[in-house]
Amino acid sequence: MHESSEQRFLVNKTYDEIRVGDSSSLTRTLMPEDVKLFAILTGDVNPSVIDPSYSASGLFREVIAHGMWSGSLISTVLGTQFPGPGTILIDQSLHFSRPVTIGDTITITVTAKQKFDHSKHVNFDCVCTNQEGLQVVRGTAEVLAPTEKVSRLQEVHMPEIRIDDKHQRYVQLLDRVKGLEPIPTAVAHPCDEESLKGPVQAFQAGIIEPILVGPENKIRAVAEEFGIDLHGIRIVHAAHSHDSAALAVSLVRTGDAEALMKGSLHTDELMGEVVARANGLRTSRRISHVFIMDVPTYHRPLLITDAAINIAPTLEDKADIIRNAIELAHIIGIPEPKVAILSAVETVNPKIQSTLDAAALCKMADRGQIKGGILDGPLAFDNAVSIVAAKTKGIKSAVAGHAEILVVPDLESGNMIAKQLEYLANALTAGIVLGTKVPIVLTSRADTAETRTASCVIAALIAHHNRKIGTV
Question: What is the pLDDT of residue 2?
Fold first, then answer.
């Protein structure tokens, strides 16, 4: 939340200056954010005004404003324009003639109707009309008018409010796979609430066909304890977590599953089976992990890699990490992703290995060894995501300030960036492992069911792409 300032010249009319028939007007357009913010401030969560699906089946067939949104604008005119600063509202009566809907432009007009010398009170007629000139609200207001003149330039400091509807972003992500066939997915050891709820939610949303691999009695006990419906979901019994990982990987190798999902077991247990040379899921490409993040304060999706698999990647490893991320970007609809190779500084420094790697990777891209994206680096994090920071440091780059893929120097720095964006910036997060025969949903044991379901969306998009190009 940033603070903005606005200069306003405030001039009121005192009781003695007011003449019957004097008036003042204010015009406002109702935006979706206004409805949400009014609901937050008042606690009025009437579905008629905040739930589009409910509104569509209701009396007015669309989202309407809270009635008192218009009423509050009458108070705004009285308090800031006419009579202006020093006015005290005594009484108000309103009649609501017709609804105000999203996009309507409302003109609020107050007109002095009657004065009372003994009390310095003034009665006003109040009318609100929409862009078609139709009356939406009419009424009266009685105020105690100011007796002292106010005439000054005032700098008003107001916070800039950004309403972040994370649930709406989540719903929009689920829409990416609407109409696509669910992907058979082996879920290794889903033996706690979140790791079981995630694949079940994804199943109910039509994203995956989960195959739950683990101790059947334990899985069913978790489902019963937390009210999770397992109807229609296949369970493959495994003795323990190591057995669960092995069986889940074998389901992929036999073609029963086209994606793999981590449950409540440790990452090392699952990945140990994935990378096994005899029976694993390796390809010729280095295995890597990508966090796909929808950050409300950033203007495009962010792919952060690698923050979960490669601890201290070599130059060769980083080249594959970038190739994997670029391919994923193409699948999710970014045709030529901008790739920022991160370091602590934006210049090449022989004492900082990550800057040397960045320079080499950019040259590899110039020579066609890395294709499909625009690379630049080294870039510090601020230069990668802020055009202002990049301009301040004199960086001229197609990537700086507009990065879509952030390539981190090592696992530690990447993990910190991803977790900070998730927990401090309210990012919607999905995690996926690439460079394997099938996509692997690899989330933290602390991740919510929603994060796991979001990751299933990405896995499903990859699996459908693999079907299309014939790699399944």
Answer: 43
Q: Which parts of the chain register pLDDT below 50? A: 1-5, 54-61
232 in the same domain as 156: no
The SS3 call for residue 434 is strand
pLDDT of residue 61: 43
Q: In whole angstroms, give the CA distance from residue 216 to residue 235.
A: 7
Q: Which amino acid is at 368?
A: G
Same domain, 57 and 109: yes
* Contact in structure between 259 and 186 (CB atoms under 8 Å): yes
**Spatial distance between the Cα atoms of 334 and 325, rounded to a whole number of angstroms:** 11
CB-based contacts of 423, cutoff 8 Å, min separation 6: none
Which CATH number fits the domain that encloses residue 40? 3.10.129.10
pTM: 0.74
Residues 155 and 141 in one domain: yes
> Tokens 């400091």 — which residue?
157
Do the bridges between strand 234-237 and strand 374-379 make them parallel or antiparallel, or are there none, so unpaired?
A: unpaired
Q: Which residues span the domain enclosing 406?
A: 285-435
Please provide the distance, in angstroms rounded to a whole number, between the alpha carbons at the two ends of the chain. 46
Any idea what DSSP says for residue 177? Answer: G
Residue 64: the pLDDT is 76
For residue 74, give the H/E element and its range. helix 67-80
Q: What's the CA gap between 471 and 468, in Å, rounded?
A: 8
State the amino acid at position 152 in one-letter form.
Answer: R
Ramachandran quadrant class, 21 (left: phi over 0; alpha: psi -120 to 50; beta: rest):
left
- 404-442 as b/e, with b when 16 or more CB fall inside 10 Å? bbbbbbebebbbebbbebbeeeebbbbbbbbbbbbbbbb
Q: Is the dihedral of CA 381, 387, 388, 393 positive or negative?
A: positive
Instruction: Tell me which H or E stretch contains 302.
Output: strand 302-305
Are 453 and 200 contacting, i.e. CB atoms less than 8 angstroms apart?
A: no
Tokens of 13: 């009319």
Looking at the fold, whether 310 and 429 belong to one and the same domain comes out as: yes
Residues 121, 143 contacting (CB under 8 angstroms):
yes
Q: Which segments of 139-266 does DSSP mark as H helices, in order?
A: 166-174, 193-204, 216-226, 241-253
Question: Could you give the C-alpha distances from 78 to 194, 219, 296, 308, in angstroms and in order?
Answer: 52, 63, 36, 58
- Two structure tokens written together for 131: 């862009």
Report the CATH number that the domain containing residue 392 is assigned in CATH. Answer: 3.40.718.10
Domains in the chain: how many in total? Answer: 3
Give me the residue label for tokens 């096994």.
276
Q: Is the dihedral angle over the CA atoms 37, 38, 42, 47 positive or is it negative?
A: negative
CA 49 to chain centre: 22
